[in-house]
UniProtKB/TrEMBL annotation:
It comes from Oikopleura dioica (Tunicate). The keyword Metal-binding applies. Keywords: Calcium, Magnesium, Metal-binding, Repeat. One of its GO terms (molecular function) is calcium ion binding. The keyword Calcium applies. Residues 103-138, 150-185 form the EF-hand domain. PANTHER family: CALCIUM AND INTEGRIN BINDING FAMILY MEMBER 1 (PTHR45791:SF1), CALCIUM AND INTEGRIN BINDING FAMILY MEMBER 2 (PTHR45791). SUPFAM superfamilies: EF-hand. It holds the Pfam family EF-hand_7. InterPro entries: CIBP (IPR051433), EF-hand-dom_pair (IPR011992), EF_Hand_1_Ca_BS (IPR018247), EF_hand_dom (IPR002048). SMART domains: EFh. This is EF-hand domain-containing protein.
Length: 196
């Protein structure tokens, strides 16, 4: 453990103090944090392991937890820095949102930000069309299993149902009201694996 390294242990390890701090600040056990750290360090392809390693967003997107998620780029964008890199702390923050003990409000705020493609603080009709298209895509392709007309119709129906004040856009409060009526909402932000 600690910072020692052996031939069997090619990657850096977390110190005892770091593990204690991470278990205090996140919903994860010591074992889960060590496992995440091992996975994260494997993304470092440099000759010497680096404690301050920052992973490229596209490498993080290939991890099993995100690989099949149609919003993986948006999820990572929220947690990555402006150059599309993530530290291990950023990665743990991201993983915390998927934990069952993460509050529904935190999940809701992150979901809203992920679905707000134009980053204007509201979900508009274009945002909803993009959400529907991603939720109905085929595997890794951007091809939807429903027609463009069906995407538009579905987005219009969502807008009609969620836009309680008829403003032509959905606020976070309206989104919160909708998700409170949807028991499956939490499943969208869980670590359950989806097959691609």
């Amino acid at each position: 453990m600690g910072n020692s390294q052996s031939a069997c242990e090619p990657y850096q390890t977390l110190s005892g103090n770091e593990l204690v701090e991470f278990t205090r600040l996140t919903p994860f056990s010591r074992f889960e944090i060590e496992s995440f750290y091992d996975d994260f360090q494997k993304l470092d392809h440099s000759a010497q392991p680096r404690r301050n390693f920052r992973a490229r967003a596209e490498d993080v997107a290939r991890l099993p937890i995100l690989k099949c998620n149609p919003f993986k780029d948006r999820i990572i964008q929220i947690f990555a820095d402006q150059n599309s890199f993530l530290t291990f702390e950023d990665f743990l923050d991201m993983m915390s949102v998927f934990h069952p003990r993460c509050s529904k409000m935190v999940k809701l705020c992150h979901a809203f930000a992920i679905y707000d493609f134009d980053n204007d603080g509201y979900l508009g009709s274009e945002d909803l069309k993009r959400v529907v298209k991603r939720l109905t895509h085929r595997g890794d392709s951007s091809e939807s299993i429903i027609t463009q007309e069906d995407i538009v119709t579905t987005a219009e129906r969502l807008m009609k149902e969620l836009d309680l004040d008829n403003s032509g856009r959905i606020s976070i409060e309206e989104f919160e009201y909708f998700t409170s009526k949807s028991p499956d909402f939490a499943l969208l932000f869980s670590t359950r694996q989806k097959t691609c």
